[in-house]
Amino acid sequence: MEAYATALSYAIPGFVILIIIEALAARLMKKDINNSEDVISSLSSGMTNTLKSLLGLSIVIVSYEWMHNLFAIMDIQSSLTLYILAFIGIDFAAYWSHRFNHVINVFWNRHIVHHSSEEFNLSCALRQEISAIVGVYFFLYIPLAIIGIPPKVIAITAPLHLFAQFWYHTRLINRMGVLEYILVTPSHHRVHHAINDIYIDKNYAAIFIVWDRMFGTFQEELPEEEPIYGTLKPARTWNPVVINYMHMWQLIKDAWHAQSIWDKVRIWFMPTGWRPADVIKRHPVKEIPVYERIKYQTDISKGLLWWSWFQFILTNLLLYHMLVQFGSLDASQLVLYASFLFLSIFGFTSLMDVHMIGLVFESIKSLFGLFIIWYSGGWFGLDAQLPMATSLMSGYLLTAGFLAIYFIMYDRSSKSFSDKEYMHEANSLV
Known about the structure:
By secondary structure, the protein is mostly helical. The chain folds into two domains: 214 residues, no CATH class; 113 residues. It has 18 helices and two strands. The protein has a two-stranded parallel sheet with strand order 1-2. The radius of gyration is 23 Å and the shape is globular.
């Protein structure tokens, strides 16, 4: 895990630089591809995913190492061949796991946050889940285990395969000639993220588009059909944690309300969006036609927007500090640090929704942060790199609590905003 933290400490600055370059290029090209709140939400989602990974919050049913020891019938000596076969095999598995996530009700909860943005830009690539706790797709790696790909090769290749999916989340690159027939391009992936009738549930491939062409899920981007992004039931919140569990909450409610025992069981494994007929009748979910939707926008004050950016940047810097210090922090310190960052993300993204729960979590975050300083006598060794870091953190935590009260009062008084309406819209996602 320490090696993973080190890799992320290099990867994250690279992602940030590319996102800034894309934003500058969009300005030069006079294209509107970014919304501040949406970018903060996307990158905050990436931070929650990183925290989950660093803490090892996942359950492995069957490990690849066990499958390799059991099934391997070959011993390939060429290192180049090993890595090529591993990359292709991982990509094949990625196609099918991605497809299953889209078409099976319970598995959609593992992937919904990645599609929840109504924009499409590089920051969306980092909109990653925290809800996929159990590793269920181990069987897709059996072919790699059979041909003898060592676990170490998989461990090295898998992150590279994941990072290679970052670049094509953009609207600034058009069609790419002959590469359109071989690799996943921005054009292909724009189709995948679109909810237009002709585009939905298409182009599942991660790197090689040949899988979609082979298995009948390929769709070209059409010049006359501009992609509309998001989910069929819009998220209506900037909070990535809430988005992660919206679909699961809807499934739980529908299973509870269903009168038939069979419906209570099968709802989890039916096509995504399926609901029992009696539940649809008694508990209808508001649907917004794709071509009539208006993008979610809370229209917050400039003060709250700038404060949200400040909190996001500070939280990101603290996460980076946690990555750099990962090897020197014990388990209890890691849990404390990650919990604080999680509370921070939940707080400032809810504050962007102008929701009262934002005030609650901002207050809890401030109190928890002050407790950490009192309990530890400092901020996880940050004073060694930044003089007076603990004093600065204390000042920030006190300020954050008071500003949360101010912005909730100011922005809510100037907007016709209802917590009840917010929660109804948020919980209506299927």
